[in-house]
Design a protein that fits this description.
8-stranded parallel beta barrel; single chain; TIM Barrel; alpha/beta; 3-stranded antiparallel β-sheet
Length: 490
């Protein structure tokens, strides 16, 4: 069996993890630019100053900053997004390597604060617009279709400091100004768009996905509503700008299995899966699901959803659904039921039938097939897997060779699972863009040591390295996979 003849093979990055050039050519700071370097053992921190002049650094995922916090960059901290892997200067070299692998598409993000430095401006930064013109032109030169994420953890910091970012509905207007500018500017160059990357990460803390310095459920719910409204408006606007535009959403999808067949564990699993479905339900179906409204009612949360906003959601449903898939977890009613398991900004229980990566993420190719099946059955819309991969500790050996067999095995098994979903189960899958097609900074840990790429980048967490690019064994393997349209996986 093989993949559809027009299947979009490619790879994925995000501006804040790849580009660097954080303050070049008029770019302003984004939420990612004030998050420190971390590791497997060390959390990432968000830095800010309070009215008394004191500088603070609080853990990103549990951040609850005081009202007088002004977020910024301070000399005593190390911020990996500032340099990342220098894609800002080396994108031509990198895109040439992607073309050598045979990429049909390249998923990347536009850094909002490169276009509107604070998010508050009425007019865009021309230097930022020209940069992405150059990037897209370079892609198109090789026949690579850009797949562009509008917001990938890059909320302009000015919006947070001015009015609390997405907790304030004025951010919708700022976002739509940005969408209108880039939609018009790149008309004919970009056909595939995603609105918000892993929009459901809001449920794991407000900072990463929305620049919201809080975990307060009321604030998170309002920020989520505002992003969902903005997403729906963006879908409509991009369709108006160009009828050929295809606009999708993007969620971080975590499959949960019940730890046992105990009915209580079944219900615990159902609750966890609803945390996956919620944002996608709204973006694909056009309304808030009853289970979420009941949850808000129980918790005393008021999102003040007007009739006009309901109509906006109804009219702005996405054309296709995209998602990240890395691993699965188990759910149980009792927290002492089994050994805990970490994951892509999630927690659960270890599955005794699965192995795990060096970072503790459980490896489950069958879970990807299951995810594709249940998602397609639920929504009946085309799907794209826009993030998938395994972080490994790759070693640059003599002769600049990197033997990343674990990476190859992970991707091979997941591609087989996609093949089964398409050819046995009947899923309509448009494309596949493995995460970190070139080594980059990890969003969750802020480190280079955790490597996903087909291309090794010689930067280390201690600041050493010149950024040279080297092909890993997986580079030639993936090139063969693409050339055979998924038939040759050996």
């Amino acid at each position: 069996m093989s993949f559809p003849k027009d299947f979009l093979w490619g790879g994925a990055v995000a501006a804040n993890q790849y580009e660097g050039g954080w303050d070049v050519d008029g770019k302003g700071p984004s939420a990612a630019d004030v998050v420190t370097r971390g590791s497997r053992e060390k959390a990432r921190y968000v830095t800010y100053r309070t009215a008394d002049g004191q500088i603070h650094a609080d853990e990103m995922f549990t951040l609850n900053a005081p009202e007088d916090a002004v977020f910024g960059v301070f000399e005593e901290y190390d911020y990996p997004s500032h340099e990342a892997v220098d894609g800002f200067h080396r994108y031509k070299e990198d895109i040439a390597l992607f073309a050598e692998m045979g990429f049909k598409t390249y998923r990347l993000s536009i850094n909002w604060s490169r276009i509107f430095p604070t998010g508050l401006e009425e007019e865009p930064n021309e230097a930022g617009l020209q940069f992405y013109d150059n990037v897209f032109d370079e892609c198109l030169k090789y026949g690579i279709k850009p797949l562009v994420t509008l917001s990938h953890y890059e909320t302009p910091l000015g919006l947070t400091n001015e009015w609390g970012s997405w907790t304030d509905e004025r951010t919708i207007d700022a976002f739509m100004r940005y969408v209108n500018v880039v939609g018009e500017r790149y008309k004919g160059k970009v056909e595939y768009w995603l609105t918000f990357n892993e929009i459901n990460t809001l449920d794991h803390g407000g900072w990463m996905g929305a620049g919201v310095p809080s975990t307060d459920p009321q604030k998170i719910a309002v920020a989520g509503k505002n992003q969902l409204i903005a997403s729906a408006k963006a879908v409509e606007l991009l369709h108006q700008i160009d009828a050929n535009n295809k606009v999708g959403n993007m969620i971080g999808f975590m499959v949960y299995y019940p730890l046992t067949c105990n009915p209580d564990d079944i219900m615990a699993c159902w609750k966890e899966m609803n945390t996956n479905w919620f944002y996608c339900d709204v973006q694909a179906r056009g309304y808030y699901p009853a289970y979420k409204l009941k949850e808000y009612e129980r918790e005393g949360i008021d999102i003040r959803l007007s009739e006009e906003e309901k109509e906006t959601l109804r009219k702005g449903t996405v054309d296709f659904i995209s998602f990240s898939y890395y691993m699965t977890n188990c759910a149980a009613e009792k927290s002492d039921a089994a050994e805990s398991s970490i994951g892509n900004m999630s927690m659960g229980f270890k599955n005794p039938y699965l192995k795990a990566s060096d970072w503790g993420w459980q490896i489950d190719p069958t879970g990807l097939r299951y995810a594709l099946d249940i998602m397609y059955d639920r929504y009946q819309k085309p799907l794209m897997v826009v993030e998938n991969g395994v972080g490994t500790q790759d070693i640059l050996e003599e002769g600049n060779v990197i033997h990343d067999q674990a990476h190859i095995e992970y991707l091979r098994d997941h591609i087989k699972a996609m093949d089964d979903a398409i050819n046995i189960d009947g899923v309509e899958l448009w494309g596949y863009t493995p995460w970190g097609c070139i080594d980059l900074v990890s969003a969750s840990t802020g480190e280079m040591h955790k490597r996903y790429g087909f291309i090794y980048v010689d930067y280390q967490d201690d600041g050493t390295g010149e950024g040279a690019r080297h092909k890993k064994d997986s580079f030639d393997w993936y090139k063969k996979v693409i050339a055979s349209n998924g038939e040759d996986l050996d």
